[in-house]
Amino acid sequence: MTAVVGNDAFTRLRNTAGDRYPTRVSQVPAFIDRAEPTVWGDRSSAGMFGAQELDAHERDGFVQVPGLLTGDEVAAYRAELDRLAEDPGVRSDERCVIEKSSDEVRSIFEVHRISEAIGRLVRDERVLSRARQILGSDVYVHQSRINYKPGLGGGGFYWHSDFETWHAEDGMPGPRAVSCSISLTDNHPFNGCLMIMPGSHRTFVSCVGETPEDNHLSSLKEQEIGTPDADSVTSLGNRHGIAMMTGDAGAATFFDANCMHGSGDNITPYPRSNIFLVFNSVQNTCVQPFAAPKPRPEHIGARDFTPVR
Ligand code: 6CS
Ligand code: FE
User: Fold this and answer.
1) Which of 48, 58, 205, 248 has the most crowded Cβ, counting Cβ within 10 A?
2) Rounded to the nearest 5°, which phi and psi values hold at 201?
3) CATH number for position 108
């Protein structure tokens, strides 16, 4: 359903009627309770997660899997990351994002289509069976990326919920998506590891402001709109605390689309690189954006909903 919303910048179509998770439509932030479950499959569904891990995911909004990749695989994927970052064709591609304050590669998007090896990872049972168990359906890739976060100045990501952006800018109806972040370097507390507020996935923070046109051109270097206000972050932080996703290279973290999460800059000499795969349920395919003039490009938010087999 769409409603016409007028404002001084331009009038546009918006998907507001019946939207359970309105965001970027008001100057007043708000907490909205999540209606949907986090684990959609039943606890005995086939896959590599045990019932206890699925319970932990429901409770905390994330689960860590140490050693998802072997040491040899980590070495091979790191070589692949180096190869991609040095490829001039990839560097000049719109899917490549350069750091704001250096000319190092920050992220490469749609990387499962650029790299055959990463494409295989999407279909790997260690990843796919777990995503399917959580989402309780067939799944497709909504987004894939490499985050390089080099040492000596790799930039962090301020607190945010991915679902807030995917809902506002990509038209994802509900929080029935899961991210799988696979570390290719050791994650210490000091090299910019992922931080998650456990249990925050049950609260949606409606953010203030309005999405500017072509927001993705700046938001992927440093997100501004769609980040929660200071009081909301403080209150969620006090309520839930903060967990750090430390661990050896090869570990994976599966986390819910609505987790409040972020990471600091990396001023250590040790890089913190990962492969990031986002699976969405085929029963939650994207519609028109809920708070943006038009959907983001396909390489950031997929519009091809073919299930991964
Ligand atoms: O834009 C995205 O899809 C992802 N990137 C950022 C910086 N925030 C939201 C989401 O995680
Ligand atoms: Fe994120």
Assistant:
1) 205
2) -65, -15
3) 2.60.120.620
